[in-house]
Amino acid sequence: MKFRIGKSELSGLDSKTAMYAALGASLAGARVLLTTDDAGFVPAASRVTGGVAVAKPEPAEHFASLDAAFETSEREDRVVTLERETAMAGSAEQGELPKYRKQPERFVLPCERETMCAGCPYRGVFCAASKLWLRTIGDGGCTLLGQKKPFQTLDAAWGRGTAAAALAGFVAARPEARHDTIAVMGAGDLDEASLRLLAKTGGTVAAVGDNDVSKLCTDCGAALTELDAYDVNGIEAVLRKALDSEGVSVIMCRGTCGKSGEKRYRIDQNRCRRCGACSRLGCPAISGRSPEIDPAECVGCGMCLAVCKCSAVVEA
Protein backbone atom coordinates (compact mmCIF):
# COMPACT_ATOMS: atom_id res chain seq x y z
CA MET A 1 0.00 0.00 0.00
CA LYS A 2 1.30 3.48 -0.87
CA PHE A 3 0.65 6.52 1.29
CA ARG A 4 1.01 10.00 -0.19
CA ILE A 5 0.72 13.46 1.33
CA GLY A 6 1.40 16.00 -1.39
CA LYS A 7 4.80 15.03 -2.84
CA SER A 8 5.80 12.84 0.11
CA GLU A 9 5.26 9.13 -0.43
CA LEU A 10 5.72 6.06 1.76
CA SER A 11 5.33 2.57 0.32
CA GLY A 12 5.25 -1.03 1.52
CA LEU A 13 2.79 -0.38 4.35
CA ASP A 14 0.15 -2.87 5.42
CA SER A 15 -3.46 -1.75 5.03
CA LYS A 16 -4.17 -1.09 8.71
CA THR A 17 -1.00 0.93 9.33
CA ALA A 18 -1.50 2.97 6.16
CA MET A 19 -5.15 3.72 6.89
CA TYR A 20 -4.63 4.93 10.44
CA ALA A 21 -1.59 6.94 9.40
CA ALA A 22 -3.86 8.53 6.79
CA LEU A 23 -6.48 9.32 9.44
CA GLY A 24 -3.77 10.87 11.61
CA ALA A 25 -2.64 13.05 8.70
CA SER A 26 -6.20 14.08 7.91
CA LEU A 27 -6.65 15.00 11.59
CA ALA A 28 -3.86 17.50 10.95
CA GLY A 29 -5.81 18.89 7.98
CA ALA A 30 -3.85 17.17 5.19
CA ARG A 31 -5.21 15.46 2.10
CA VAL A 32 -3.98 11.87 1.85
CA LEU A 33 -4.09 9.47 -1.07
CA LEU A 34 -3.75 5.72 -0.45
CA THR A 35 -3.07 3.40 -3.37
CA THR A 36 -3.81 -0.23 -2.61
CA ASP A 37 -3.99 -3.65 -4.25
CA ASP A 38 -6.14 -4.86 -1.36
CA ALA A 39 -9.36 -4.50 -3.31
CA GLY A 40 -11.59 -5.51 -0.43
CA PHE A 41 -10.12 -3.11 2.09
CA VAL A 42 -12.37 -0.17 2.89
CA PRO A 43 -12.29 1.26 6.44
CA ALA A 44 -15.46 0.80 8.45
CA ALA A 45 -14.61 3.57 10.91
CA SER A 46 -17.37 6.15 11.26
CA ARG A 47 -15.42 8.71 13.26
CA VAL A 48 -13.21 10.03 10.49
CA THR A 49 -12.31 13.42 9.18
CA GLY A 50 -12.45 14.21 5.49
CA GLY A 51 -9.39 14.28 3.28
CA VAL A 52 -8.64 10.58 2.76
CA ALA A 53 -9.02 8.91 -0.64
CA VAL A 54 -8.34 5.23 -1.38
CA ALA A 55 -7.48 4.30 -4.97
CA LYS A 56 -8.44 0.69 -5.71
CA PRO A 57 -7.82 -1.57 -8.69
CA GLU A 58 -11.50 -2.47 -8.97
CA PRO A 59 -14.39 -0.14 -9.97
CA ALA A 60 -15.28 2.32 -7.23
CA GLU A 61 -16.94 5.72 -6.95
CA HIS A 62 -16.63 7.92 -10.01
CA PHE A 63 -15.04 11.35 -9.65
CA ALA A 64 -14.10 13.74 -12.42
CA SER A 65 -10.81 14.51 -10.68
CA LEU A 66 -8.85 13.82 -7.53
CA ASP A 67 -9.74 17.30 -6.28
CA ALA A 68 -13.43 16.43 -6.62
CA ALA A 69 -12.86 13.24 -4.63
CA PHE A 70 -11.17 15.13 -1.80
CA GLU A 71 -13.89 17.79 -1.78
CA THR A 72 -16.52 15.07 -1.39
CA SER A 73 -14.51 13.43 1.39
CA GLU A 74 -14.16 16.71 3.28
CA ARG A 75 -17.77 17.76 2.78
CA GLU A 76 -19.22 14.43 3.92
CA ASP A 77 -16.55 13.54 6.52
CA ARG A 78 -15.80 10.12 5.09
CA VAL A 79 -13.14 8.10 3.34
CA VAL A 80 -13.84 7.96 -0.40
CA THR A 81 -12.84 5.17 -2.77
CA LEU A 82 -11.94 5.98 -6.35
CA GLU A 83 -10.74 4.24 -9.46
CA ARG A 84 -6.99 4.01 -10.00
CA GLU A 85 -7.20 6.10 -13.20
CA THR A 86 -8.67 9.06 -11.30
CA ALA A 87 -5.71 9.09 -8.92
CA MET A 88 -3.17 8.74 -11.70
CA ALA A 89 -4.62 11.71 -13.57
CA GLY A 90 -5.00 13.91 -10.53
CA SER A 91 -2.87 15.55 -7.90
CA ALA A 92 -2.84 15.43 -4.11
CA GLU A 93 -1.31 18.88 -3.86
CA GLN A 94 -2.73 21.36 -1.38
CA GLY A 95 -1.70 24.72 -0.04
CA GLU A 96 -0.91 25.61 3.54
CA LEU A 97 -2.63 23.36 6.05
CA PRO A 98 -5.54 24.91 7.94
CA LYS A 99 -5.01 25.82 11.57
CA TYR A 100 -5.35 22.74 13.74
CA ARG A 101 -8.57 22.65 15.74
CA LYS A 102 -9.00 20.16 18.54
CA GLN A 103 -12.32 18.29 18.18
CA PRO A 104 -12.19 15.22 20.45
CA GLU A 105 -15.98 14.88 20.36
CA ARG A 106 -15.61 13.86 16.71
CA PHE A 107 -12.47 11.75 16.70
CA VAL A 108 -12.45 10.00 20.08
CA LEU A 109 -14.45 6.84 20.68
CA PRO A 110 -17.19 7.32 23.30
CA CYS A 111 -16.47 6.30 26.89
CA GLU A 112 -19.18 5.96 29.53
CA ARG A 113 -16.81 5.99 32.50
CA GLU A 114 -15.96 9.39 33.95
CA THR A 115 -12.66 8.74 35.68
CA MET A 116 -9.74 6.33 35.90
CA CYS A 117 -9.65 3.86 38.74
CA ALA A 118 -7.44 4.63 41.70
CA GLY A 119 -3.95 3.39 40.86
CA CYS A 120 -4.54 3.27 37.09
CA PRO A 121 -1.09 3.15 35.42
CA TYR A 122 -2.28 5.51 32.64
CA ARG A 123 -2.88 8.36 35.08
CA GLY A 124 0.78 9.42 35.30
CA VAL A 125 1.11 9.71 31.50
CA PHE A 126 -2.00 11.85 31.08
CA CYS A 127 -1.14 13.97 34.11
CA ALA A 128 2.27 14.75 32.59
CA ALA A 129 0.80 15.32 29.11
CA SER A 130 -1.78 17.72 30.51
CA LYS A 131 0.85 19.63 32.45
CA LEU A 132 3.05 19.95 29.35
CA TRP A 133 0.07 20.97 27.15
CA LEU A 134 0.67 18.09 24.74
CA ARG A 135 -1.62 16.74 22.06
CA THR A 136 -2.20 13.05 22.63
CA ILE A 137 -3.47 10.36 20.27
CA GLY A 138 -4.78 7.28 22.06
CA ASP A 139 -6.22 3.99 20.93
CA GLY A 140 -8.77 2.33 23.21
CA GLY A 141 -9.38 1.09 26.73
CA CYS A 142 -8.12 3.33 29.52
CA THR A 143 -6.60 5.82 27.05
CA LEU A 144 -10.15 7.01 26.29
CA LEU A 145 -10.32 8.45 29.79
CA GLY A 146 -7.69 11.00 28.77
CA GLN A 147 -10.58 13.01 27.29
CA LYS A 148 -12.22 13.35 30.71
CA LYS A 149 -11.55 15.85 33.48
CA PRO A 150 -9.10 16.77 34.87
CA PHE A 151 -6.85 15.89 31.89
CA GLN A 152 -8.88 16.69 28.75
CA THR A 153 -5.76 16.13 26.66
CA LEU A 154 -6.91 13.39 24.26
CA ASP A 155 -7.30 14.57 20.64
CA ALA A 156 -8.14 11.33 18.83
CA ALA A 157 -8.59 7.59 19.40
CA TRP A 158 -9.74 5.18 16.71
CA GLY A 159 -9.27 1.81 18.41
CA ARG A 160 -6.69 -0.51 19.94
CA GLY A 161 -3.31 -0.61 18.24
CA THR A 162 -3.90 2.48 16.07
CA ALA A 163 -2.22 5.26 18.07
CA ALA A 164 1.38 4.92 16.83
CA ALA A 165 0.37 4.78 13.15
CA ALA A 166 -1.96 7.77 13.57
CA LEU A 167 0.84 9.73 15.24
CA ALA A 168 3.15 8.97 12.31
CA GLY A 169 0.58 10.35 9.89
CA PHE A 170 -0.02 13.45 12.01
CA VAL A 171 3.71 14.20 12.20
CA ALA A 172 4.16 13.49 8.48
CA ALA A 173 1.60 16.21 7.79
CA ARG A 174 2.83 18.62 10.48
CA PRO A 175 6.55 17.96 11.17
CA GLU A 176 6.61 20.58 13.93
CA ALA A 177 4.11 18.44 15.86
CA ARG A 178 6.99 16.05 16.56
CA HIS A 179 7.76 18.23 19.59
CA ASP A 180 4.29 18.58 21.13
CA THR A 181 2.30 15.46 20.20
CA ILE A 182 2.53 11.92 21.58
CA ALA A 183 0.80 8.57 21.16
CA VAL A 184 -0.47 6.80 24.29
CA MET A 185 -1.26 3.11 24.03
CA GLY A 186 -1.06 -0.26 25.70
CA ALA A 187 2.37 -1.85 25.38
CA GLY A 188 0.82 -5.09 24.15
CA ASP A 189 -0.57 -3.29 21.08
CA LEU A 190 2.75 -1.78 19.99
CA ASP A 191 3.62 -3.27 16.60
CA GLU A 192 6.59 -3.35 14.26
CA ALA A 193 4.88 -1.77 11.24
CA SER A 194 3.86 1.36 13.16
CA LEU A 195 7.27 1.75 14.80
CA ARG A 196 9.07 1.44 11.46
CA LEU A 197 6.79 4.12 10.03
CA LEU A 198 7.47 6.35 13.04
CA ALA A 199 11.20 5.85 12.47
CA LYS A 200 10.72 7.70 9.17
CA THR A 201 8.63 10.57 10.56
CA GLY A 202 9.85 10.80 14.15
CA GLY A 203 7.56 10.64 17.16
CA THR A 204 7.15 9.75 20.82
CA VAL A 205 5.07 6.83 22.08
CA ALA A 206 4.14 6.34 25.73
CA ALA A 207 3.39 2.63 26.16
CA VAL A 208 1.75 1.44 29.37
CA GLY A 209 1.81 -2.12 30.66
CA ASP A 210 4.16 -4.88 31.69
CA ASN A 211 5.26 -6.22 28.30
CA ASP A 212 8.84 -6.66 27.14
CA VAL A 213 9.26 -4.36 24.12
CA SER A 214 13.06 -4.07 24.18
CA LYS A 215 13.70 -6.36 21.18
CA LEU A 216 10.92 -4.72 19.17
CA CYS A 217 12.37 -1.27 19.83
CA THR A 218 15.91 -2.41 18.98
CA ASP A 219 14.76 -3.98 15.70
CA CYS A 220 12.91 -0.79 14.70
CA GLY A 221 15.61 1.66 15.77
CA ALA A 222 13.53 3.20 18.55
CA ALA A 223 15.11 4.73 21.64
CA LEU A 224 13.60 2.97 24.67
CA THR A 225 13.26 4.42 28.16
CA GLU A 226 11.68 2.33 30.92
CA LEU A 227 10.33 3.62 34.22
CA ASP A 228 7.60 2.98 36.77
CA ALA A 229 4.14 4.08 35.60
CA TYR A 230 3.59 5.66 39.02
CA ASP A 231 6.68 7.87 38.77
CA VAL A 232 4.69 10.87 37.55
CA ASN A 233 7.59 13.33 37.88
CA GLY A 234 9.92 10.94 36.07
CA ILE A 235 7.43 10.55 33.22
CA GLU A 236 7.26 14.32 32.79
CA ALA A 237 11.06 14.61 32.67
CA VAL A 238 11.41 11.75 30.17
CA LEU A 239 8.67 13.21 27.96
CA ARG A 240 10.46 16.57 27.85
CA LYS A 241 13.69 14.90 26.79
CA ALA A 242 12.06 12.66 24.18
CA LEU A 243 10.14 15.52 22.57
CA ASP A 244 13.36 17.51 22.19
CA SER A 245 15.13 14.62 20.45
CA GLU A 246 14.92 13.34 16.89
CA GLY A 247 13.81 9.93 15.65
CA VAL A 248 11.35 7.67 17.42
CA SER A 249 11.22 7.34 21.21
CA VAL A 250 9.29 4.75 23.20
CA ILE A 251 8.64 5.48 26.87
CA MET A 252 7.73 2.21 28.57
CA CYS A 253 5.68 2.99 31.69
CA ARG A 254 5.63 -0.24 33.66
CA GLY A 255 2.49 -0.88 35.67
CA THR A 256 -0.43 -3.29 35.81
CA CYS A 257 -4.15 -2.68 36.10
CA GLY A 258 -5.38 -2.63 39.68
CA LYS A 259 -1.89 -2.64 41.19
CA SER A 260 -2.25 -2.88 44.92
CA GLY A 261 0.13 -2.98 47.83
CA GLU A 262 0.11 -2.95 51.59
CA LYS A 263 0.82 0.77 51.78
CA ARG A 264 -2.01 3.27 52.11
CA TYR A 265 -1.70 7.03 52.35
CA ARG A 266 -3.42 9.88 54.16
CA ILE A 267 -3.10 13.65 54.11
CA ASP A 268 -1.64 15.45 57.12
CA GLN A 269 -3.96 18.47 57.36
CA ASN A 270 -1.40 20.39 59.42
CA ARG A 271 1.04 20.30 56.49
CA CYS A 272 -1.45 20.60 53.62
CA ARG A 273 -1.53 24.02 51.89
CA ARG A 274 -4.66 23.27 49.80
CA CYS A 275 -2.69 23.93 46.60
CA GLY A 276 -4.66 21.36 44.58
CA ALA A 277 -1.65 19.47 43.19
CA CYS A 278 -2.96 16.09 44.34
CA SER A 279 -6.49 16.87 43.10
CA ARG A 280 -5.18 17.45 39.58
CA LEU A 281 -4.29 13.74 39.41
CA GLY A 282 -8.00 13.02 39.07
CA CYS A 283 -7.74 10.13 41.53
CA PRO A 284 -11.15 9.02 42.85
CA ALA A 285 -9.59 8.30 46.24
CA ILE A 286 -8.85 12.03 46.76
CA SER A 287 -11.67 14.52 47.36
CA GLY A 288 -12.53 17.82 49.02
CA ARG A 289 -11.14 21.37 49.06
CA SER A 290 -9.22 20.32 52.12
CA PRO A 291 -8.30 17.08 50.40
CA GLU A 292 -8.65 13.74 52.09
CA ILE A 293 -7.75 10.24 50.92
CA ASP A 294 -10.42 7.57 51.18
CA PRO A 295 -8.64 4.50 52.61
CA ALA A 296 -11.23 2.23 50.97
CA GLU A 297 -10.31 3.59 47.52
CA CYS A 298 -6.54 4.08 47.95
CA VAL A 299 -4.45 1.33 46.38
CA GLY A 300 -1.07 2.67 47.49
CA CYS A 301 0.29 3.66 44.07
CA GLY A 302 2.08 6.70 45.56
CA MET A 303 1.43 9.21 42.76
CA CYS A 304 -0.09 11.70 45.20
CA LEU A 305 3.06 11.40 47.31
CA ALA A 306 5.13 12.27 44.24
CA VAL A 307 3.20 15.42 43.26
CA CYS A 308 2.68 16.88 46.75
CA LYS A 309 5.06 19.84 47.24
CA CYS A 310 4.56 20.25 50.96
CA SER A 311 5.12 16.66 52.19
CA ALA A 312 1.52 16.45 53.38
CA VAL A 313 0.95 12.94 51.98
CA VAL A 314 2.16 10.38 54.49
CA GLU A 315 1.72 6.67 55.07
CA ALA A 316 -1.49 5.81 56.88
Task: Describe the SSE topology.
Elements: E1 2-5, E2 8-10, H1 15-27, E3 32-35, E4 52-56, H2 66-76, E5 80-83, H3 84-89, H4 104-107, H5 123-131, E6 135-138, E7 154-157, H6 163-173, E8 181-186, H7 192-201, E9 203-209, H8 214-220, E10 223-228, H9 232-244, E11 248-254, E12 265-267, E13 286-287, E14 292-293, H10 303-307, E15 313-315
Parallel strand pairs: 3-4, 4-5, 6-7, 6-8, 8-9, 9-11, 10-11
Antiparallel strand pairs: 1-2, 1-3, 12-15, 13-14
Helix pairs in contact: 1-6, 5-9, 6-7, 7-8
Domain 4Fe-4S ferredoxin-type: 263-284, 289-316
Protein name: 4Fe-4S ferredoxin-type domain-containing protein
What does this structure look like?
The protein has 316 residues and is of the alpha/beta class. The strands form four sheets. The protein has a six-stranded parallel β-sheet with strand order 7-6-8-9-11-10, with helices on both faces. The mean pLDDT is 88.
